[in-house]
């Protein structure tokens, strides 16, 4: 009798887990299709109604943010998982995220410049352009993190657990970035390095989402890395050249410096991101152990 009851409980648990997996797959597919549909509509509106408005840079982040909002309204009104906006330590988490990004970028640029393959040349850069890039990259970070680390991470975490959520979220983030217009215009070796680095960045962002319990730290990191690499140091962003404080001069185009395709295409960035992920994981484990001992 006990055996039958035990088997029945196991069967029900397995059925519940499978239902969760099917839900995750279905909502992920719907979400990705919705991204493309919304961005297509916004692009058409931009071409027809806003020809002179220079609105194109904002289409993608607005599309991602709208997708996140619609997915919650359509599918999650009764499922109250936490998107990640509420955080009484938001200011502290934003500051921590900015500091971590500055450390990662400083170490990266140090090794980049030490190789002698690149140099920085200061150029004129108005405050109006700086403010534009602050607004643009803040929009990009907010839109992407709201959808990826907010909605999708919350969905995966609720249905299939933390570790799988981090991994699946990073796979999805990397896959979405494959659809950047310039992704397939570069040599395969740079493309592979770029996808590896984007995956590592996403692991880092997903872990900070889990460890901090909110979106504020991932948004701060995402914004800071984009702003520093492109608006300050002059790396291409998403394959596009960006006006910057410094002009990046390449003495030689190599896998080491990304050959002008962007920092994510640089092999020097890979071990630094691996180290950053490892240090974040160790710090979190120590913090968690300390809390448990109190």
UniProtKB/TrEMBL annotation:
It comes from the Bacteria. One of its GO terms (biological process) is CAAX-box protein maturation. The keyword Hydrolase applies. The chain crosses the membrane at residues 21-43, 55-74, 94-113, 125-148, 266-284. Keywords: Hydrolase, Membrane, Metalloprotease, Protease, Transmembrane, Transmembrane helix. The keyword Oxidoreductase does not apply. Residues 127-228 form the CAAX prenyl protease 2/Lysostaphin resistance protein A-like domain. One of its GO terms (molecular function) is metallopeptidase activity. This is CPBP family intramembrane metalloprotease. It comes from Lysinibacillus antri. The lineage of its organism: Bacteria, Bacillati, Bacillota, Bacilli, Bacillales.
